[in-house]
Amino acid sequence: MPASNDKLKWFREARYGLFIHWGLYSILGRGEQVLFREHLVPSEYRKLAERFNPKKYNPAAWAATAKAAGMKYAVLTTKHHDGFCLFDTATTEYCAPRCAAGSDLVAEYVKAFRNAGLKVGLYFSLADWNYPAYFNGPEKDPKGFKAFRKLVHDQVRELCSQYGKIDVIWFDGEWPHSVAEWQSARLEKTIRSLQPGILINNRLFKRAPGTGDFGTPEQEIPDVHVAKAQPWESCITSVQRWWGWHTGDQFWKSPKDILLALCHAASGGGNLLLNVGPKPDGTFPAPFVRNLQPVGEWLRVNGEAIYGTTGGVSEVSTLGYMTVKKNAAYLLVTYWPGEELHLCGLSNRVRSARVLGHADRVRVERRGEHIGLRNLPRKAPHSTCTVIKLSLDGPARPYPWVAQQPWHKNGPLLADWTTE
Ligand code: FHN
């Protein structure tokens, strides 16, 4: 049973979170899937556990970086497909507390991020490449898969029992087995009984639309301009391809890339979960920290246009994006039109308009369904996205035709939209 709206309230308002992929693979520096992608010898790979001793691990510093960036929550990999557990578990010795790290890295993360006032999420991969039964599946190895599934359920139970209140459990690695083979419904029941307010993503349910508490598009922002029925969160790497630290993937997303992804996600009523792959010593790569800062500064001026908003209500793609909240609509203008701006599709009366972070009043004109904003700054005040707040006569309302598009089968006739 999905979480109620009030349990989702913080998630819908947060809009921006930090994804953290960290584990033994970080030592090799070739991404989080190196064991499988390079067909390494598993017994040799497992010896990395005796080298994983992150001397500079400082989760309070991680939390401070996330908070300064304007992020409201985080999700840390507690166990990726390689099976190494960053948390204390009775199911295996292959875990941080009983290997070189010598401590429960998840416990330290939870404490630090909660102390910083951030919501806490735990990523858990159902896949575990150490167990042949994972690959063979229940048909070829019914007994082995049953034991493997018990291990998975036991580990999830530990994560939901050992660390106090957890806000998100972020499943992954569900392929190639079915919801029935994973006994996902039983596992969901266990989770919700231990963590009544928790949010569970859709990957425990094979990413089927409408399942779990939120959808999880990956490496893309769905091209929607109004909020979808189910909350969703786009997870995106901060480099070109890899989620875990990769010394060769230094193709960092710029502050502009990050800000545009955030605005795009918010305009569709979704969240951006931006990933970082910490280095094996526990530090965040410097380019990642550097590129977060301008976005954090932008949010300190324009955050009201992102946090607590829902998606736009009308077509503004010639300008950029739109979000709405209470009696306001926010134009997230990425394509600055100059001193005059034209907007169509909003049926409200615009009481006033102003550029966030600027004192100058913007003159508002209206002719029928056409709204004009005058005496804007000639050049865009912000190089990536300038926000114009429209104070309205009530909650934002679109014209009925907004839902139509010329390429839709029953799209508008010419007469429908030419006002002459
Ligand atoms: O295979 C994983 C991948 O390594 C990474 O963890 C992403 C993050 O969402 N999830 C899987 C690919 O969908």
Structure notes:
With 420 residues, this protein is α/β, with parallel strands linked by helices. It folds into 2 domains: 5-305, Glycosidases (TIM Barrel, Alpha-Beta Barrel), CATH 3.20.20.80; 312-401, Sandwich (Immunoglobulin-like). The protein has 13 helices and 15 strands. The protein has helices at 5-14, 25-28, 34-37, 42-46, 59-68, 105-115, 132-140, 142-161, 179-182, 184-194, 255-267, 286-302, 414-417; strands spanning 16-20, 73-79, 119-125, 168-172, 199-200, 233-236, 271-276, 310-311, 320-325, 328-333, 341-344, 350-355, 361-367, 370-374, 386-392. The mean pLDDT is 95. Residues 32-33, 172, 218, 235, 243 line the site of ligand FHN.
Mean pLDDT: 95
**Would you tell me which CATH topology of the largest domain applies?**
TIM Barrel
Bound molecules: ligand FHN
Please give the share of residues in helix. 25-40%
The chain-level structural class is alpha/beta
Q: How do the strands of the widest beta sheet line up side by side?
A: 8-9-10-15-12-13-14-11
CA radius of gyration: 24 Å
